[in-house]
Specification:
InterPro entries: CAF1_poly(A)_ribonucleases, RNase_CAF1, RNaseH-like_sf, RNaseH_sf. The chain has 481 residues and is an alpha+beta fold. The chain is built from 16 helices and eleven strands. Strand 2 and strand 3 form a beta hairpin. Helix 1 packs parallel to helix 9 and helix 2 packs across helix 10. It is elongated, with a radius of gyration of 29 Å. The relative contact order is 0.15.
Length: 481
């Protein structure tokens, strides 16, 4: 993962003037251009999510307790879970190698945390969402200080690609319905007769007192079908007038072509503005996918499933189709848990949880990485965990590359689409250097420790350790891309 070239101004660091690490809904649009620029300039992005629930839907059944599930069965369980629950918090941490840092060469890390609210803007064709929460997840998050008020009051918006296409379809249907004539039913005639009588009386009264408008209402109000029927009735029988609906009443005014064009233009502008604002944090995921930035996560098989359902749309039924999606949209996916379980050649039970790894690498100074912006631990806060993942990654990958590690066994999956990938892994394994001794990075054997970096993107190291995700508790044990 070779460092990116310096930008035209020669700056290697990730600069975001006045940045805060927690971004809320009112300020998101203002920060968005800088956030996208950080993703453009970084070497990789660490991701972390917090969920409203994870696990089986009790109505869908589950794998018997007397055996491990297969990877395909685990995918179906997590797919069902992602369809039921949602991401409540998203952490991203763009990271870039800075060869000219103020305290020496350093990985410049910029973590950000976003509460992700389920809200939908009102003028998006009445589109709505259902929100489901696991009681166990709520209890877990409350114990870890999760602020649900902040989630709903100030959380950033989002809109999946499939949701956006659905809303666009609703708008097209609404526009078509608006010009499609519907014939009134016999039971509608008394209501139309009342409207006709009011309009005729108003037009006659205008001869003596040119009132500019007529308001029509009734105590029981009008439903959507009646509103559409009355508006079309006026357009058909009184073409020189037009009906404008407000919350509780209809206003009849003389038709004005310029005004109607402006109204239609304003309506379209408001819709597009709401749609743009609703996309929210999905735009960050879009940018990562557009540029095919390497992504790093810890135990991220589940994260990728939820990310697809939340920001892309319905998940493929077959795990191999999900695999194809990831292969097509990401250049390199790195699971720090997979790295960790193959890290220490002298131990069979290597530490692999994120808190364990964070503590484990607290004494390994090189490669250096920018400190977290708040001087306290914030476990299970997505932005903090994304930074911890990035920190563990640069330390772990560098140490494994220089000092050596266990060689992971070939993937156990038997899908034909993996035959070429297995051959690539086996060939790359033959080029792995001998284990040089753990702890070499913090020993004196390296003359210039400040130059210690993660392996270049072209290294065979990533053919062995990249695009392989740990999936504990399954027969295969990993998901290979």
């Amino acid at each position: 993962m070779a460092p990116l070239p310096s930008d035209p101004e020669g700056a290697d660091s990730l600069v975001m003037v006045g940045a805060k690490w927690e971004i809320e809904r009112p300020e998101f649009d203002g920060y968005l251009p800088d956030l996208l620029k950080l993703i453009e300039r970084c070497d990789f992005v660490a991701l972390d999510f917090e969920f409203a629930g994870v696990g089986r839907d009790p109505k869908r059944g589950h794998v018997p307790m007397n055996r491990k599930p297969s990877l395909a069965e685990r995918y179906q369980e997590q797919r069902a879970s992602a369809e039921s629950y949602r991401i409540m918090q998203m952490g991203i941490c763009p990271v870039k190698w800075d060869s000219k840092g103020s305290r020496g060469p350093i990985y410049d890390a910029r973590p950000f945390n976003f509460f992700v609210a389920p809200h939908v803007q009102r003028n998006l064709c009445s589109y709505d969402r259902a929100c489901l929460y696991s009681a166990r997840a709520i209890d877990f998050h409350l114990k870890n200080g999760f602020d649900f008020n902040r989630l709903y009051m100030r959380g950033c918006l989002y809109l999946g690609h499939q949701e956006e296409a659905h809303i666009q379809g609703l708008k097209r249907q609404r526009d078509e319905d608006d010009v499609t004539i519907i014939d009134p039913k016999p039971e509608d005639e008394p209501m139309l007769d009342e409207v006709r009588a009011d309009i005729v009386a108003w037009i006659k009264a205008r001869e003596d007192d040119p009132c500019k408008f007529l308001n029509i209402d009734r105590p029981e109000g009008y439903n959507g079908y009646q509103r559409r029927l009355i508006r079309q009735f006026i357009r058909r029988e009184y073409p020189e007038y037009i009906g404008i609906w407000y919350d509780n009443h209809l206003q009849v005014v003389p038709f004005n072509e310029d005004r109607e064009k402006n109204v239609a233009k304003k309506k379209e502008e408001d819709f597009q503005k709401a749609l743009k604002a609703q996309r929210g944090v999905r735009l960050l995921i879009d940018k990562i996918m557009e540029l095919k930035k390497p992504i790093v996560g810890h135990n991220l098989f589940t994260d990728l499933i939820y990310m697809h359902h939340m920001f892309i749309g319905e998940l493929p039924e077959d795990i191999n189709d999900f695999r194809t999606f990831l292969q097509q949209n990401f250049s390199l996916i790195i699971d720090t848990k997979f790295l960790a379980i193959n890290d220490d050649p002298n131990k069979s039970g290597a530490s692999s949880s994120l808190p364990e790894l964070t503590l484990k690498f607290s004494n390994q100074y090189y490669p250096d990485i920018r400190d977290f912006p708040v001087m306290k631990e914030l476990p299970h806060v997505a932005g903090y965990d994304a930074w911890c993942t990035a920190r563990c990654f640069v330390k772990l990958a560098s140490r494994m590359y220089i000092a050596g590690s266990r060689n992971p066994p070939p993937p156990m999956e038997t899908a034909p689409c993996l035959d070429a990938r297995k051959e690539e892994i086996l060939l790359a394994l033959t080029t792995r250097p001998p284990i040089a001794g753990h702890g070499k990075i913090i020993d004196t054997e390296i003359d210039d420790k400040a130059k210690v970096q993660i392996p270049a993107r072209s290294s065979n190291f990533w053919k062995v350790f990249g695009n392989r995700l740990c999936v504990n508790g399954t027969i295969e044990g990993e998901f290979t891309l």
